[in-house]
């Protein structure tokens, strides 16, 4: 199957110009050629006559062969035969996998070559650039964090850390529970909210507790939704 954008590609336009045939005809010749290569799991096609048979071109084989070579869709090998240009790089995924599994022989070594180092380098650089430009994910429930807490980068980071901790302990924090927790923390004020979230994460709790003033492990219960209790039945203490 042709890749998106083929009809506007300069190589395809050159092929249409050289053959002086309608666009659907030229597209059909390419599809027939690629289908033969896909089914054989090899870019190798053969001589002029083989190219004509593969493309099902109704005219002289030399004409379609010369046009495909001039446009860059096939390459001429040192032995005079032809192969599909860069089939291993542009074939569908299942064909690429099949080509890798197929044992290589001396006859296949010209066509079944691995991706070039240049192309691999380009792909790596594009992937690195995409990762660099990717927007960092928003903190959990960022849209419902009260402004009095959201304005504090420290709170946002502590809130994110606590949510990550809950996720690691397989304790899911629902949006309903988070809304109640954040409302209660906002009511406590920023300083007490920071202390409560930090204290709860440090102690490995999936609920949020305010530390006792005397520094003992016993804490005031700020807000928590036990895993075995429905949110609808929960009320903060």
Structure report:
The structure is a single chain. This protein folds into 2 domains: 6-113, no CATH class; 142-233, no CATH class. The chain starts with 9 loop residues before the first helix and ends in a 14-residue tail after the last strand. Mean pLDDT is 79; it is low at 103-119 and 225-237. The strands form 2 sheets. A 3-stranded antiparallel β-sheet has the order 1-3-2. The protein has 11 helices and 5 strands. By secondary structure, the protein is mainly alpha-helical. The chain is rod-shaped and about 95 Å long. The longest helix has 18 residues, at 23-40.
**H and E order:** HHEHHEEHHHHHHHEE
Share of helical residues: 40-55%
What is the β-strand count? 5
Strand content: 5-15%
Low-pLDDT sequence parts? 103-119, 225-237
Number of self-contained structural domains: 2
Instruction: Output mean pLDDT.
Output: 79
Rg over C-alpha atoms, rounded to the nearest angstrom: 32 Å
Please report the distance between the alpha carbons of the first and last residues: 64 Å
Structural class: mainly alpha
For the largest beta-sheet, the strand count, sense and barrel status come to: 3 strands, antiparallel
Q: Which of globular, elongated, flat, extended, rod-shaped describes the shape?
A: rod-shaped
The largest sheet has its strands arranged as 1-3-2
* SS field, number of helical segments: 11
């Amino acid at each position: 199957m042709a890749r998106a954008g083929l009809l506007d590609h300069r190589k395809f336009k050159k092929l249409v110009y050289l053959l002086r045939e309608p666009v659907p005809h030229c597209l059909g010749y390419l599809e027939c050629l690629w289908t033969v290569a896909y089914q054989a799991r090899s870019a190798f096609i053969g001589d002029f006559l083989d190219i004509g048979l593969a493309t099902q071109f109704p005219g002289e084989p030399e004409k379609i062969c010369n046009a495909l070579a001039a446009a860059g869709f096939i390459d001429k090998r040192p032995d005079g035969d032809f192969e599909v240009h860069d089939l291993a790089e542009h074939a569908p995924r299942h064909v690429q996998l099949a080509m890798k599994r197929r044992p290589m022989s001396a006859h296949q070594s010209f066509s079944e070559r691995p991706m070039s180092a240049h192309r691999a380098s380009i792909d790596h650089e594009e992937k690195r650039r995409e990762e660099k430009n990717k927007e960092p994910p928003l903190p959990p429930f960022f849209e419902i964090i009260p402004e009095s807490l959201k304005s504090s980068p420290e709170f946002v980071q502590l809130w994110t850390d606590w949510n990550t901790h809950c996720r690691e302990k397989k304790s899911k924090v629902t949006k309903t529970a988070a809304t109640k927790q954040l409302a209660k923390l906002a009511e406590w004020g920023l300083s007490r909210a920071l202390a409560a979230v930090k204290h709860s994460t440090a102690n490995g709790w999936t609920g949020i507790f305010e530390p006792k003033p005397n520094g003992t492990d016993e804490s005031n219960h700020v807000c928590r939704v036990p895993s075995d209790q429905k949110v609808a039945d929960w009320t903060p203490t």
